[in-house]
Specification:
347 residues, globular
Amino acid sequence: MGIAATLPPAALAAAATEADAEDALTALTRFVREDMAECNRAILARMDSPVVLIPQLAAHIVAAGGKRLRPVLTIAAAQLCGYSGGLRHVHLAACVEFIHTATLLHDDVVDESQLRRGLASANAVFGNKASVLVGDFLFARAFQLMVADGSLHVLEILSTAAATIAEGEVLQLVTQNDLSTTEERYLDVIKGKTAALFAAACEVGAVVAARPASEAQALRDYGMNLGIAFQLVDDALDYAADQATLGKTVGDDFREGKVTLPVLAAYAASDESGRAFWLRTIEESQQTGADLDEALRLMADTGAIGLTLDRAAEFAARAKADLDIFPDTPLRRALQGVADYTVSRVR
């Protein structure tokens, strides 16, 4: 049975738009195509180094693909705000992508991940030390781009996001194996580790266009809500997707004892036997080879995936509403459609 069969009405409603949600991402990509081509050139140029291992490892990351959603959002936000001042938005989009890629390199080392977007992760190919150090290199490149932009406001937004991401990752480590974690605490984790960069990526688009604070805040709120929805769906997919769809090993979060909303929802709705299972496998880290299948059964029995997707749909709807401050244009509709796309990834 596919995950679509378990989708709650709210999640289905959020994913149902006049055009297919996937088309919204395609439409948005079309709006930013030329600027993204320039951004990709900037990324490749800044990944270069006389230290051969750096461009080798960087090339491995690029080969893994990905939609580069965060830099797309930076460029689209700048276009939405009427930016026409040169290539600042392009270079800051590259900066955003460097921050994101650096965090992926570090995360895969921390999580001991073997797959990234369906391919062997960089740490699996090049080792943990190289992955951490090249991640540091990319962070440094990001800060060089911030400084080159020359705006203290931009520097504040993006440097704060970088620090917040690190805080979110540490908070996730603190909440790991702790089933007393509240939904509010869990949301703090994903706001930090994922949504903060979405928010910053969108906000700087308004800043470079010198738009009013109200528009910058609207774009920041859009990015924050979009990022929360994105991570909620990712956390649901860890228990509901096949490996080819997920691009990483299914059940990684379970094996690592990560306390995500699907786990919290299943634990809260389980009977005494189910709660004992979650306490043993998550809090005590005592797992057998058959435990993932049992976890998936309990997820299905308690409706935990449906609840998680309902919450994702709520945040996606908030993201769409955040953009109502802007004129109704095809670009605005494409950005709103990306919120639907975020939820539609579970179909």
